[in-house]
Amino acid sequence: MNNLKYYRKKNNLTQKNVADYLKITQPNYANIENNKVKLNIDYALLLAKLYKIELSELLNSDLDIITLSKEEFKILQEAKKIIIKIENKHDL
Which of 19, 32, 60, 76 is most enclosed, with most CB atoms within 10 A? Predict the structure, then answer.
């Protein structure tokens, strides 16, 4: 899944919704999302604005990166602490 699809789905939008926002057809947007047509800078700027993200986030092709909210990060930190406590009890 590329970043365009990731952010579209994260925002609960359809390809048609995004295409309408960009004032293009859904098949044209699908071609952009599926890397059949290159994303131009004007559309990239509009999409970053739509998704309320930095342009660099949208264009980052390293799909191994997971974006977490502050709340999600705090939950993971707490879960890690709990796991460490459980592991330490088993070591006794």
Answer: 32
Say which residue the tokens 């986030």 belong to: 57
Query: 3-class SS at 25?
Result: coil
* Pairwise CA distance, residues 37 & 58, whole Å: 16
d(C-alpha 9, C-alpha 4), whole Å: 9
- pTM greater than 0.90 (yes/no): no
Q: In the chain, which stretches have pLDDT less than 50?
A: 1, 63-65
Cα–Cα distance measured from residue 63 to residue 85, given in angstroms and rounded to the nearest whole number: 32
CB 63 within 8 A of CB 1: yes
